[in-house]
Amino acid sequence: METVSANECHGGTQWVYRHDALGTTMTFAVFQPPGDGPFPVLWYLSGLTCTHANVMEKGEYRRLAAELGLMIVCPDTSPRGDHVETHDDNWQLGGGAGFYVDATEPPYRDHYQMYSYVTEGLPHLIAERFPADMSRQGIFGHSMGGHGALICALKRPEVYQSCSAFAPIVNPSTADWSRNALQAYLGPDESHWRAYDAVCLIEDGARFPEFLIDQGEADSFLDSGLRPWLLKDAIQDTEIAVRLRMQPGYDHSYFFISTFMDDHLRWHGERLSQ
Amino acid sequence: METVSANECHGGTQWVYRHDALGTTMTFAVFQPPGDGPFPVLWYLSGLTCTHANVMEKGEYRRLAAELGLMIVCPDTSPRGDHVETHDDNWQLGGGAGFYVDATEPPYRDHYQMYSYVTEGLPHLIAERFPADMSRQGIFGHSMGGHGALICALKRPEVYQSCSAFAPIVNPSTADWSRNALQAYLGPDESHWRAYDAVCLIEDGARFPEFLIDQGEADSFLDSGLRPWLLKDAIQDTEIAVRLRMQPGYDHSYFFISTFMDDHLRWHGERLSQ
């Protein structure tokens, strides 16, 4: 593990590291709050085209994370590197578009194991190298990363005590902007996609106690890709609680994310401090 | 005036505009807090290499500015454009390095009138087009922009009710990284530089009631370019109050700025609400 940068911030430290993973070199960011810990760990999964850096620069999470004593870990959104198929001309496939699945199809299966990376590989490193209390983990994210957070929580409810999302893709199997990637990573048999789709997971019996979701009403991707009402439909007749807040005037940007960041941090803080 | 972008954020709107000024097209950002106004106006001047966008993305000012009802205006740091001498190979001269002076020397004098732009040209536009209370203005900034804020306040104490700075260049006439630019913009006669140098202005009789200054102790530019102690020396035997806070561990980055942003906003808010 190599330190890329370390910056004092709000009494804690914003770190960026590089390490060998997924057959390439992966970069991730960790905000360590002031104090000795061990700290609960809150995972932030970013959206399409992002790296670890976007939310680190624009997410405005450090002030309150420092106050609440939360360690924030921000992975990259895909493997990268000269030998990785990244499709730089396509923002919905390859680099920046890992969709948090474990690919089964060539050429992606060699590197695109993002689900295992964010739920196992990177957590092992965090547990080993940081003052982290891995018995208290939460997960959240934005858009494709909101999808990632929902599926991680639904697939591993024993690992995460809290989950929330900003404008998540709740049903990527049926969204135009994700179908192509799921087909490339998982093959044409759509039944294999269900294991990485929040709505399908719930239909197939996966459960998580409660989700907080903020969604901007002025989000240009609302109808085409996000459609949080499909999650509301899916949880009917289950004991899953969804607190879905439609936010008038807000779009899909980090201006939206940073506005509601505090609410999400408090949501996780309450559940991770128990 | 042309709208470049508008994003809802913290109940207000983060605007970016373009307009004709300085013989070219200038871009600036305005955060308008929620409500009808008129709002006090707080000017943020950015540092070397920055545009209006850096603090807009990384400064973390909107949450508290919305709460305090402050309009935040962020100008660019220099004229730009194909016909403007920008010296793209030199980060300390030309584009991104206007140093908030009115240049007298060719070829700069045609466009590099940043002092007039931030104290007259842009304020006139703000007064005309926004719900701004121009009788309540404060100014702050970072590094070169901290220098800009200090000289604007010292030169126009009747205009600004509050001034603060993050890691300001307090004495650019004697700092290696600014001497070259001052010579290019103002000519070799250093007596002409004194009108754009906070320490020299105070030596020459300029006054402002009080400054808040935060300075990171781990700032790699501290000794070579910033040297806030020179301002402390200059105010001896004057009635100027400087609250200089040396911050252990902090560097010159936006991680430093965003950490102390709230304190600066409260400083201005208290003085602008009266």
Helix-strand layout with pairing:
The structure is a homodimer of 274-residue chains.
Chain A: E1 2-9, E2 12-21, E3 24-32, E4 39-45, H1 53-58, H2 62-68, E5 71-75, H3 114-129, E6 132-142, H4 144-155, E7 160-166, H5 176-186, H6 198-203, E8 210-216, H7 222-226, H8 229-235, E9 241-247, H9 254-272
Parallel strand pairs in A: 4-5, 4-6, 6-7, 7-8, 8-9
Antiparallel strand pairs in A: 1-2, 2-3, 3-5
Task: Jot down its keywords.
homodimer, Rossmann fold, 9-stranded mixed beta sheet, 32% helix, globular
Task: Provide structural commentary.
- Two copies of one chain form a homodimer.
- By secondary structure, the first copy, chain A, is an alpha/beta fold.
- Chain A has a single domain, classed as Rossmann fold (3-Layer(aba) Sandwich), CATH 3.40.50.
- In chain A, 32% of the residues lie in helices and 26% in strands.
- Chain A has nine helices and nine strands.
- Chain A has helices spanning 53-58, 62-68, 114-129, 144-155, 176-186, 198-203, 222-226, 229-235, 254-272, and strands spanning 2-9, 12-21, 24-32, 39-45, 71-75, 132-142, 160-166, 210-216, 241-247.
- A nine-stranded mixed sheet of chain A has the order 1-2-3-5-4-6-7-8-9, sandwiched between helices.
- In chain A, a hairpin with a 2-residue loop joins strand 2 (12-21) and strand 3.
- The first copy, chain A, starts with a strand and ends with a helix.
- The interface between A and B is medium-sized, with 23 and 23 residues.
